[in-house]
Design a protein that fits this description.
The structure holds 2 protein chains of 2 kinds. Chain A is 37% helix and 27% strand. Chain A is built from 8 helices and 10 strands. Chain A has helices spanning 42-49, 73-79, 95-105, 112-121, 137-151, 167-182, 194-200, 223-237; strands spanning 2-13, 16-27, 31-36, 57-62, 65-66, 80-83, 155-159, 186-190, 203-208, 211-217. In chain A, the strands form 2 sheets. Chain A has a 6-stranded mixed beta sheet, with helices on both faces. Chain A has a 4-stranded antiparallel beta sheet with strand order 2-1-4-5, covered by helices on one side. In chain A, strand 1 and strand 2 form a beta hairpin. By secondary structure, chain B is an all-alpha fold. In chain B, helix 5 packs parallel to helix 9, helix 13 (297-311) crosses helix 18 and helix 18 runs antiparallel to helix 19 (411-438). Chain B is globular and about 70 Å long. Classes of the chains: A alpha/beta, B mainly alpha.
């Protein structure tokens, strides 16, 4: 069963077309990695799937809800846990307040024990009452991933979750992705770290200039061969 | 050992780099439309100043036209009072207000601006002392800086309407750089205090200075020395210049130039001393008490927004300034019409400029995450607006309820004040929230020097809000008929509600929401 079904999706910002005629499907229990150079349209795609940006044209069905229909957007958002590519945290709020707000809006406040368990796994339990302004970049990313994992019901969308995160943080995030897959969630991950992605993804999709230019099983992108395939694709598609 | 003053070459490089940053800021205003808007804004400000410098002439002409109209009577009374020498208090009040603004704005954070965020400059690496010249430029073009210049211009025009005004105007305009440099010296004094002292000592020093400044304002109102004495001398000098005493003018001009030079050097020395020390880090690793959120989503959102507001120093300070200035002003004056009018104008304005005009910018990079939460954006505009109204109500209660209970302020005055404040709050709040939706700004608050909205935009908003919602509120306050006041309040509330309903409809558009999110969370 597809939890994300994207057909002929285009996203435009005024004159600029960030995503053009994109087709993408993510099944329940599948992990799909998004690769591509800077400005390839990965973050725009993920933002649209998370219900942040509206699609300019095409069909975007998330957890059975059509994101082109304003009345279904909140239901789709309820199903998605989203970690944005940059920031994503309130500057003057504590970790506890971030979790409290996320759980309140999903009406899942009974999940606090799970949140505490996740905090332990991500090494953030000692920072529960710290204001995030003083966090390092890596700590902010960990918290963003944690919030996404905690709130995801059917789809987990992680945009650059490993950016600036230490190996323990990367391992914790990969563990979470594994658990999400086991629990039947569809997972979409965007990163520039090909080896991490190739090892943890069922399928990898390469984007360039807003369109899909290559796709294959995760294993086919592993090792030196995979890296060569990826870089040659990027070079071919470079403007 | 830190030398007191930086070498001349460093100062020159810093001034040059600030010039480059100003040019860069201008280049960052992309497109013909936005540039045209900035130029129109500047032209309007120049026009306002030109009008201010001719207020006296207008009164003179009105007085000469006869006393058959109310305006003519007022003008004739004014001219007669001036000739009897009874209007020294005008100069005292103007100078007092301008000096008070210079003393207070560093504490409200209104003067702690910079042309670019320090983060943006790490790659460019301008000369370190550019921060001083940045402060001078941004303070000069800030709302407070403009209002100081406007006030001094008006008073110079009013006090010289029966004589030569040009030299008096020049003197008034030379007082202005002194005030700007005083503000900048204080800004860097505070920064130095931040870097060399512990929090308790810093707060004690800050409180001491604020209380002293508040006492100075009270002294102006009660016509005591020292500020009213200085103001009186200022007014007397302007009158003498108007009547051709150019010797006195030369002395006053020389004093202004010498004061400016002294304050410039003091500011430079304080800036250098501050920059030689490590930046403050006290807020970076702050741990709060365990604070949970409500289970109900709307209440949780309200709580988190209020906490963002109270924890963000750039938002908190201007609001606290209303409390620090407003409460003593109401007690001392017994809630006279001038204080009432000022607070009807200033309270919603301060809250709008500190929060409402860019509330989404205050939330900043959290907006994409917030936007991905179900139902949150639908509530966000309501909450942002509600908080703005709530804060104005709390400020009004803090300023006016205790004097009313103590019998210092009359109940009828409180009713008029409530009517005026309701109108100015409704109109100003709606306008501010509309700005937040249609003109969001990327701002990095809490990182040293960034502001809610850019200085020119803030001046523009301040003038608009004061002349629109503020004036409407003052008009309602001035009515003596309660039935008319109630009617005007109902009309203003209905009008603002209708406009707010339209705004809510526009906010429901996901394109509009996405535009706001993309703007305030840009990396």
């Amino acid at each position: 069963m597809s939890v994300v079904d994207v057909r002929d999706l285009s996203i435009r910002y005024g004159e600029i077309t960030a995503v053009r005629h994109l087709d993408l499907r993510v099944e329940a229990g599948e992990v799909v990695g998004l690769l591509g150079g800077n400005g390839a349209g990965k973050s725009s795609t993920l933002r649209a799937i998370a219900g942040v940006n509206p699609p300019s044209s095409g069909t975007l069905i998330v957890a059975g809800h059509d994101l082109a229909d304003d009345r279904q957007v909140d239901a789709a958002r309820q199903a998605v846990g989203y970690c944005p590519d940059v920031g994503g945290l309130l500057r003057q709020a504590t970790v506890r307040e971030h979790i409290g707000l996320a759980l309140a809006f999903r009406r899942k406040t009974q999940q606090w024990p799970r949140a505490l368990d996740l905090l332990e796994r991500f090494g953030l339990s000692a920072s529960l009452d710290r204001i995030t302004t003083g966090f390092s970049h890596g700590m902010c990313r960990r918290l963003s991933v944690l919030l996404a994992v905690l709130t995801a019901e059917q789809v987990l969308v992680l945009d650059e979750p490993f950016d600036g995160v230490d190996p323990l943080g990367v391992e914790a995030a990969l563990d979470m992705i594994g658990i999400a897959r086991r629990d039947g969630l569809g997972v979409l991950v965007s990163t520039h770290l090909l080896p991490v992605l190739a090892g943890g993804c069922d399928r990898i999709v390469v984007m360039a200039a807003g369109a899909v230019v290559d796709a294959g099983e995760g294993a086919t992108f592993a090792g030196t061969e995979g890296l060569r395939r990826y870089t040659s694709t990027l070079q071919l598609e470079a403007p | 050992m830190i030398t007191l003053l930086p070498p001349l070459a460093d100062v020159r490089h810093a001034a040059r780099d600030t010039g480059l940053l100003v040019r860069l800021r201008w280049k960052l205003v992309r497109g013909v439309g936005p540039r045209l808007l900035v130029l129109i804004g500047l032209a309007v400000l120049v026009g306002v100043l030109a009008a201010a410098s001719n207020v006296g002439r207008a009164i003179w002409i009105l007085a000469g036209a006869g006393t058959s109209t109310t305006a003519g009577q007022f003008a004739a009374n004014y001219v007669m009072a001036l000739e009897r020498g009874e209007l020294g208090v005008v100069g005292a009040a103007a100078l007092g207000a301008a000096v008070a603004a210079s003393l207070f704005s560093p504490f409200t954070g209104a003067a702690s601006l910079s042309l670019a965020s320090p983060d943006d400059l790490t790659g460019i690496r301008p000369a370190r002392l550019h921060a001083f010249f940045d402060s001078v430029v941004t303070t000069s073009i800030s709302t407070i800086g403009f209002l100081q210049l406007f006030g001094l211009t008006v008073v110079a025009s009013l006090l010289t309407l029966d004589g030569t005004g040009t030299v008096a105007l020049l003197l008034a305009w030379l007082v202005w750089p002194c005030l700007i440099l005083l503000t900048v010296a204080l800004v860097w004094g505070i920064e130095l205090l931040h870097r060399v002292t512990v929090r308790t000592l810093r707060r004690a020093a800050g409180t001491g200075i604020v209380v002293t400044a508040a006492a100075a304002i009270v002294a102006v109102q009660a016509e005591w020395s020292p500020l009213s004495g200085l103001g009186g001398a200022f007014a007397y000098t302007l009158r003498e210049i108007a009547h051709g005493d150019f010797g006195r003018a030369g002395l006053a001009l020389g004093l202004c130039v010498a004061s400016s030079a002294g304050l410039f050097l003091l500011g430079l020395a304080l800036c250098q001393a501050a920059l030689c020390r490590p930046a403050r880090t006290s807020t970076l690793h702050r741990v709060t008490h365990r604070r949970t959120l409500a289970v109900r989503p709307q209440l949780a959102l309200l709580q988190i927004l209020v906490r963002q507001m109270t924890r963000t120093v750039e938002v908190r300070r201007p609001i606290l300034a209303v409390v620090i200035l407003g409460i003593p002003a109401v007690w001392v004056s017994g809630g006279d019409r001038l204080v009432m009018t000022t607070l009807v104008l200033a309270t919603p304005l301060a809250v709008a400029l500190a929060w409402g005009v860019n509330a989404f910018g205050v939330l900043g990079s959290a907006m994409p995450w917030l936007a991905s939460q179900p139902h949150l954006l639908r509530w966000l505009l309501w909450m942002v607006t509600g908080i703005q109204v709530m804060v104005v109500a709390v400020l009004a209660i803090l300023c006016w309820a205790p004097p009313w209970v103590a019998g210092v302020v009359d109940s009828r005055d409180i009713a008029s004040l409530g009517a005026g404040l309701a109108v100015s709050t409704a109109v100003t709040t709606r306008s501010a929230v509309a700005k937040a939706v249609w003109r969001p700004y990327l701002t990095r608050l809490g990182e040293g020097g960034d502001v809610i909205v850019p200085p020119l935009a803030a001046t523009n908003y301040a003038l608009r809000f004061a002349l629109w919602g503020g004036q409407f509120g003052v008009l309602v306050l001035a009515q003596s008929d309660p039935a008319l006041q109630v009617g005007l309040v109902c009309a203003a509330l209905m009008w603002s509600s209708a406009r707010f309903a339209v705004l809510l409809g526009q906010w429901r558009s996901r394109e509009v929401q996405a535009y706001v999110v993309a703007t305030v969370a840009a990396s």
